[in-house]
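WARN no homologs supplied; continuing
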Amino acid sequence: MACFSSDGGGTWERINLSDTSNGTLYALAVAPGARSVVYGAGHVNYSGRAWRSTDYGRTWAETASPGGRVYGLAVHPDDENTVYAAAMDSCWKTTDAGATWQRVGGGYYLADVCLFPGGPDTVFVGGRYGVAMSTDAGVSWASLNEGLTSVNVTCLEACQDNGEVKLFAGTSGGGLHVYSFLTGVWERRVAGVRPGRTFPTFAKSVLSVPGSPDRRAVLSLLDLAGRKVMDLRAGENDIRGVAPGVYFVGAKGSRVPGSWGPRHQKVVIQH
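OK structure emitted
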């Protein structure tokens, strides 16, 4: 069951999404790029169910089933047909408005899902076993549980403020946790900006990095699991072949105090 209001919440109209009352609607998500499109999901008789509306929620059509009971939804900001669903048995993804769903992993007993602001191929899911993150639209996942005092995550939200992205995780018994994606690498200077000023890295085709104080240090771009993606050099680096997502810049072999260490500098790559 869903409720619809056309007067700012002054009055509400009940809308039954299925032909039975033996179900619960847990999640709603509006498509950022097409706000008339709304998705809803939950369960009917404990089986995962999802619906789609193209008229701001006035009428609904059922999609294919995304699998287990669904507790969270996230819609791609530039493609209203691409949706992620956090379910009991996995994270599910559709690229055809729910006509078909693909199980992409991310864990079990998931409670919520959200996308990285400005980089929607980076996906976060949270649930009974903490937070997992994918930088390749759900193809592979890595744990992001460092700092959580409770790994039973009940809700997730990500936002961007002045170049800094923050991921908020609400947990059972552990309160609210915040993970900051504040970068320490720099992007190419922008025309019209005061000389010498640099921006936190949201790099696109070119990643510019400062040199290490130790010439023996070897710079590398690492993924979230610490695997080397490519070698880097001080100055400009062509990253057009690197998939969008969150990475780290590190230096191996440095013996100079205060110089870079592996996984110390974060960089968000967008295309």
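The chain has two domains: 2-181, 202-269.
OK
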